[in-house]
Amino acid sequence: MDSLSDEIESVLFLAREVMVYQVPPRTSTAGYKAADWNVEAFLWKGRLRVLEDSTSGELFAQVTYVTPWTQVEPVLDSSRYFVLRVEGEGGKRAYIGMGFAERGEAFDFQVALQSVAKRTSATTSNPAEPSKPAAPPKDYSLKEGQTFKINIPGREAKKPTNSNTSGGGGGLFALPPPPPPGRKR
């Protein structure tokens, strides 16, 4: 790159038609409802691109999306409408409604926002650390002479018997003892 001001454009979502609405003040702490808006009388209608280079294209409003659902909030009564918190120069804030003509586009918009949140949290939790060499894999194999015991609840392991009348096993989990070392058969 030639300079630090070069930016990379990454378009995660594009909707051909969205509507922007004037939102009345929130009446409860629960959230906004699209039924409180006049969805037939939108303020603006146009194309929406998520994460575009801010130096190109004419923008109606720009929302900086940092953490999930702080600048973009779904409404309580519809999956197609959202409330956006836009900030102007001087720190002034305004809340506007945004609606999609199709539910599928609204769903894709939510997926794009979640993708941004996931990317943001991944870069902030692991900021350009040099990668550490991986630890050698642990060896969980049994070494010669090692044994282990498995207890299954509700079943008792039967102890081996010295009697040959039982057929030699003495139970499902009991085996006859091994011959003493050094003795050949």
From TrEMBL:
Q: Where is this region: Disordered?
A: 119-185
What sequence ranges are listed for the domain NECAP PHear? 8-152
* Database matches in Pfam families: DUF1681
Example GO biological process:
endocytosis
Membrane-spanning parts? none
Give the matching CDD domains: PHear_NECAP
Q: Where is the composition biased (Pro residues)?
A: 175-185
Q: Which GO terms describe its cellular component?
A: clathrin vesicle coat
Give the matching PANTHER family: ATP-BINDING CASSETTE ABC TRANSPORTER-RELATED, NECAP-LIKE PROTEIN CG9132
Name of the molecule in the record = NECAP PHear domain-containing protein
Organism (species): Kwoniella shandongensis
